[in-house]
Amino acid sequence: MPSHANRIIGLYEDHALAFDADRHRGLFEQPWLDRFLDLMPPSPSVLDVGCGMGEPVARYLIERGCMLTGVDGAPAMIALCRQRFPQHDWNVADMRGLSLGHTFRGVLAWNSLIHLERDAQRRMFRVFAEHATSGSVLMFTSGDEDDESISSYRGEPLYHASLAPAEYRALLEQNGFEVVAFVPGDPSCENTTVWLARYAP
């Protein structure tokens, strides 16, 4: 499975235009995005980790007044973001080594953390903390149990992994975050498991 995990960036790079066409724009994520926004001041700076091609999630945040900094390892995805939203900041970078040198009012990792191996996920909580300041809001998605799995996209293996909820909770606490909300398999959000936390070191 590690080889499939290492293929994630290349897979999205190779299939960026196909993914752009396939990605549903119905924004089933909106209720959680609204909860995320409600915890921040108006016009917040938001770091979108694994932003993809910027739709529909980044677009919604931008339309709600956020100043977006997006990060994705696939250059073709970032090119689409820059084309659509040139007034915002888009960066080609592997989230596992991310160190931008400044903090944000919000940090989002929607359906991106789940593509990392479990040890890499554990290390990401230090990355989240590095880009947060007191009161910053973190929202991310995960699985609902300790597991690895392989699905497929456009005929290629697509890697997913998750830690157990108790470990995510411990990692959040160890890195200065307080859990605000946790809903495993939220039926109102296409059964997505969502975490919402606030940085309070």
TrEMBL record:
The keyword GTP-binding does not apply. GO terms for biological process: methylation. It holds the Pfam family Methyltransf_25. Keywords: Methyltransferase, Transferase. The keyword Transferase applies. One of its GO terms (molecular function) is methyltransferase activity. InterPro entries: Methyltransf_25 (IPR041698), SAM-dependent_MTases_sf (IPR029063). SUPFAM superfamilies: S-adenosyl-L-methionine-dependent methyltransferases. Residues 46-131 form the Methyltransferase domain. This is Class I SAM-dependent methyltransferase.
